[in-house]
Predict the structure.
Amino acid sequence: MTLVLRSSVNIELDFTSVEESEMEDKMINAIKKAKNPAITINIAVKFARTSLKKLFIIKYLVDMSYNTVVLLLGSNINNPEHNIRMALEKIENNVGAILKNSELITSEPVEFVSSNKFRNIAVQLKTQLSPVLLLKTLKEIENQMGRTKDSGFFNEYQDRIIDIDIILYNNVRFISRKLTIPHYKNLYEREFAKDLINEIM
């Protein structure tokens, strides 16, 4: 684990070698911005080479306040606009207060062929959930709305009733077996997503 003081917040956590069942406990809800905005905590946790005890130091170095998160939502079947509205309501009830939202746009399917166009929106919100628990909660929302298997299960993109991607979490770079933040494709490659994200940043 490394601690570096810099002029902008940049927290890096690598959990690729941690079992999913253990990850939430080891996070200790510790990925938060530094209390002093002029000081940055850059934390790289490499579990394969570092004693787990060192992780507990993190909780003394970070602020346990709310986290700023950017999500991107999409739907292209079964009344997509209604699905987006329902998902946003569930996010507010289970994740945190939505601070900003982009316009709701129509977009073409990306990286697969379908006659069903997408409705997309980006939102910025505040949450106390860690990245791991945030992902779990969003997957539960997708499941409740009828999406029981994601693209990873099929190894290809398909029509979907709802898709909720975590784009940014504070200025954290987070890596695990099931989650990578920032979401590279939506942040840097897909033009429609970049436009929506820029609206709320």
Q: What stands out?
A: The CA atoms of residues 20 and 177 lie 8 Å apart. The chain has a mean pLDDT of 76. Strands lie at 2-6, 11-14, 40-44, 67-75, 98-101, 105-107, 118-127, 163-169, 172-175, 180-181. The chain has two domains: 2-60, 67-171+178-200.
